[in-house]
Amino acid sequence: MTEPTLYETLAAVLAKEFLNGEVGFTGLLTGKAAAMFGTAIPIVAMELARRTHAPDLTLLLAGCYHNPDFSQLEAMPDSEHDAVLRDLSTEAQTYDYPGQWALKRGDISFGFSSAVQVDAVGNINSVCIGSYDKPKVRLVGPILQPEHMTLFRREYIMMPHHDRRNFVEKVDFISGVGFPGGEAGRKSLGLAWGGPALVLTPKCVFDFDRVAGRIRVRSIHEGVGHDELRDATGFDLGDLSGVPTTPRPSDDELTIIRREIDPRRILFSPT
Amino acid sequence: MPSPSSKLQSLEEAAARVPDGTRLAFGGFAVYQKPMGFVRELVRQGRKNLTVVGSAQSYDVDLLAAGGCLSCVETSYVGLEKHGLARHYRRAVERGEIKVVDYPEMVSWDRFRASQEGLAFWPVPFLGGSDIVRYNPAIKPFACPMTGHPMHAVPAADVDVVVIHALAADERGNVVFPARRLLPQSNDVLMGRSCDTVIVTVEKLVSNAFIRKHSRLVELPSYKVNSVVELPYGAHPTPALGAYHADEKHYGEYVAASESAEATAAYLKKFVHLDGGNDAYLEAVGAAQLARLKDMDSLL
């Protein structure tokens, strides 16, 4: 078995988080790195969970396509509502809002967000850099982030780049709410459930101290040093001495990913 | 018995329903089935101070930004998906020329649901802690009268005019939607039911007999529609479900042009500031290119 890639490692980390019977929602992100982190890794992770411990997991691709048959895929889709996805075999297609999934009742167990900034309490931002009224950079807008971070039962934040400008003490605009004031803080804001569970990056996996409402390093990827991680992060990481290395996928997991889920290397296509 | 009246108008006449300062919504969603022919006409006529309200925007808002037609945008997303940020829009916002009012995606749909139901607001239970509330005085906090739970009242979309691009309609304004719809078409139906002035551009004008044969698919009946404009390829370069795919070649040309003022001016001259209306636009794109875009959809 050849060495696991970063993407395979992250997919295996994620797969272990999903429970049987859950509903997982991916957006369809575009652009090479964002599509890998926001769409391809989540798809492989959910397919791996379905083939190991969670056969009843529902994969909701692009928020519309229920359990699509990826074996029919000829290329990674790069558009939500055009023919590639429309014609893919699925169990149900969402064609209306409100559709099959009752968003506000909490039907979605977990989703995946990407953002330009994430901060020390897990807030995310895809609206602007700089001031709101006269931004240095105007970004795309909140999109579905507010819903992902409150109405979904939990959220995995998928960051394709790990740099000081992405990991900041405080985001310039809160488009998705993390754990300000911890779980008690969320409750006082009227948020009954949800929030970020993990943040996955090319360097590490973060989780949250949900009482203190503070991000912390759960594991560091093989080959990434503590100084490198601190240099690339704009908030204090605390004591890293006891932090384990991100676990490698097992040979069985790698076999499933390579032979069953992505045999033609469409999802994890070589760059 | 007198004949039912015709809602058929020229593109020029229909665009006159959208004067300077109009608060309007475009159907479609993000980069899908936007009424681009109508948008080009607004740019060509030099409209000013428009407010666009929607759920997700792309080439529609970006082209209006290129034409200097916008003062405000209320939506959840403005971008070109795989082609990145919408450059004209981004620059205009950074210069302070366009005010942006950000709304979450599903809340943006719910604002039109409020208008459809004749409500002034839609109750939203999940905006606590979000800067969306902090920067928007039109969103009001309140306590749920049943449970006391903290909520926010988000204003209804409340637009003056809705413009959608659909597959077909008859002259009276009965609009048919394909049986196999996707979310962008659902947005069109919702928007079309949420407003008193609805303009529909269509790929094909059909007979009333055709409409009667497909009455189950008439989601917007004639009394909901004020103007019908026959506008083949009226969503181009965005796709129209069951008619044509996105024009990736044109997207590339558009995006390249949006990198500089000179290239933008050349693009607008070639594709927008045309005498001869939609026909001239289709000539500029070229018959061979349009023919390649045909969408087979389904054989069933």
Mean pLDDT of chain B: 97
Order of helices and strands of chain B: HEHEHEHEHEHEEEEHEHEEHHHH
Q: Hey, which two chains have the biggest interface?
A: A-B, 48 and 54 residues
Taking the sheet with the most strands of chain A, its summary is: 9 strands, mixed
Radius of gyration of chain A: 18 Å
Taking pLDDT < 50 over at least 5 consecutive residues as the criterion, the unreliable ranges of chain B are none
β-strand number of chain B? 12
- Spatial shape of chain A: globular
Strand portion of chain B, in percent? 15-25%
Q: Taking all residues together, what is the mean pLDDT of chain A?
A: 95
Tell me the number of helical segments of chain B per DSSP (H or I, 4 or more residues long): 12
Percent range of helical residues of chain B: 25-40%
What count of helical segments of chain A does DSSP give?
7
Order of adjacent strands in the largest pleated sheet of chain A: 4-3-2-1-5-10-12-13-14
Rounded Rg of chain B? 19 Å
Stretches with pLDDT under 50, minimum 5 residues of chain A: none
Classification by helices and strands of chain B? alpha/beta
Q: Please summarize the sheet with the most strands of chain B.
A: 9 strands, mixed
Ends apart, CA distance between termini of chain B: 40 Å
Structural class label of chain A = alpha/beta
